[in-house]
Amino acid sequence: MLDIDGVLSEGEGRPLDLELLGRLASLNRAARETPAAPAVTLCSGRPAPYLEVMMQAIDAHLPGIFENGAGLYYAHPYSFLPHPALAGSDQMPQVRAALDRGLIQTGRAFVQPGKLHTLTLFAEDPAETRLLAEWAEAALGPLAAQVDLVYSTSCLNVLPQGIDKGLGVGWLAQRTGIPLEAMLGVGDSDVDLPFLKRVGHSAAPSNANASVAGIVDYLAPQPTASGVRDILAHYGLLP
Q1: Which of 41, 80, 187, 205 is most buried, judged by most C-beta within 10 A?
Q2: CA 153 to chain centre
């Protein structure tokens, strides 16, 4: 199970490694022919439409996790399922409105489009990314107690309290019957910690932050896509 930004990709606006995506697609085709063979899926903070495209690129057949655990995407039957923990949750419209007034309209930040259940904030000036949590707390006031603010490499994720990739991967295990201890997870930033701590095997590329590097079973000597190749080879999944 792979994160996208900082793992498969170097991030927003950067080219994708099409050769690596092709190799992952080959692994998935082999897994469909031989059910005991490992398949590849994605666990991302990206919105559902972006995840869908990336899942098509790797010819995935297992469900994929979008919006940091807020939902599962299925290619067959084609569907997008919100996590049951979101049922009855109604704070995000108020959160969106407060952040719009306090950060977006003031020109300090913008929101990544396309998300339904969570928010991702980018600083207009990337040098101010680490100020986003402080700004968001101030803009939210009492609403800040109802959300979790978690950094990815280049942005701040605003999540309904209790929603994270760990919850998402647990739901994936439940729905697929694949035990968590049989899963390999690859991530690079704070938002990945909850799922990396739950899977049986964890790894990270060399660009991972110190928190992730300190808890994974294997740290690749190379960054992003090159690191993914190394990780897959280390676990015997690629030659």
Answers
A1: 187
A2: 11
Residues 76 and 110 in one domain: no
Calpha distance 127→146 (Å, rounded): 27
Please report whether residue 148 resides in a domain: yes
> Which residue range is the domain that position 176 belongs to?
18-83+163-234
| Short-list 67, 64, 87, 81, CA closest to 172 | 64
- The DSSP line for 23-64 is HHHHHHHHHHHSTTS----BB-SS-HHHHHHHHHHTT--S-E
Q: Is residue 3 part of a domain?
A: no
Contact 58, 232 (CB under 8 A): no
